[in-house]
Amino acid sequence: MLQPKALDEFRPHLRQKARVIFQSVSPAAQKPIPYANAAGKSFDVCVIGHLRPVKDPFRAALAARRLPQESRIRILHFGAAMTPQMASFAREEMERNIRYRWLGERPRWRVQQVLSRSPLCVLSSRLEGGANLLSEAIVNQVPVLASRIPGSIGILGNEYPGFFSVGNTAQLAQLLYRSETDSEFLARLRSHCAGLSPLFRPEREMAAWKLLLNELAGHQD
Q1: Distance CA 149, CA 59 (A)
Q2: What's the rounded Cα separation, in Å, for the pair 74 and 115?
Q3: Is 67 helix (H, G, I), strand (E, B) or coil?
Q4: Of residues 90, 60, 95, the one with CA closest to residue 75
Q5: Which end of the chain, C or N, has fewer beta carbons within 10 A?
């Protein structure tokens, strides 16, 4: 399993056969430039994920529509459209929503670079086993606003202050604006995520796999 909450999906007598191994993530190749909340500068919120229903891909864009006029938030969305209808919706949203930019599919290194330099990212999925975006954001010390689903709770913890209910546009809008305007809240999110970074170190994953393989082979090393 990729995160502890996944164990809840098993019947009790099967849980003892399951093991949690966090997928390791390496930080972005380039050292991120710390975000400066300077006057006149946009507050770029990163959304990464292909445009398909399970990702609820336009939730951040819809939330951005509700922000007050003085907000400097801009949603930068990376990901390929899985259907022509999704592509049309994204283009139409850009036309009607000045805060939303769909940038399509870009090279992984470029997306990682943008993520590492973002002050905030949004994971709005309706279902995840253990989202790569979440672990990548944590390792790059980027705070996250996430839908309250088991796959994210298992990594971030039930008390994480950056959760919103699945599909709840109003809650997400409130969290976006608070993240932009309340530096203490944003720092709290960042500190929480940074504290989870050791979970995704390559050496930790390697040790976990070694332990599992030794267990299967009947060794006790």
Answers
A1: 15
A2: 14
A3: coil
A4: 60
A5: C
Number of domains composing the chain: 1
- The residue among 70, 49, 69 whose CA lies nearest residue 60 is 49
23 in any annotated domain: no
Q: Find, among 168, 166, 148, the residue nearest to 158 by Cα.
A: 148
| CB-CB neighbours of 86 under 10 Å | 19
The interaxial angle of helices 183-196 and 132-139, nearest 10 deg, is 100
pLDDT of residue 73: 97
Q: What is the residue whose two structure tokens read 């399951």?
A: 18
Tokens found for residue 100: 């939303």
pTM: 0.86
Strand order in the sheet with 163-164: 100-104, 73-78, 43-48, 120-123, 144-147, 163-164
First and final C-alpha spacing in the chain = 22
For the chain, which residues score pLDDT lower than 70? 29-40, 130, 219-221
Q: Compute CA 98 distance to the chain's CA centroid, rounded to the nearest angstrom.
A: 23
CATH number of the domain within which 135 lies: 3.40.50.2000
Q: CA nearest 112: which of 137, 138, 76, 145?
A: 137
Beta bridge partners of 46: 76, 121
Residue 21 maps to a domain? no
* Count of other CB atoms within 10 angstroms of residue 49: 21
29 inside domain: no
In terms of DSSP H, where are the helices of the chain?
Answer: 12-15, 59-65, 84-96, 108-116, 132-139, 150-156, 169-181, 183-196, 202-217
Domain region containing 53 = 4-9+38-217
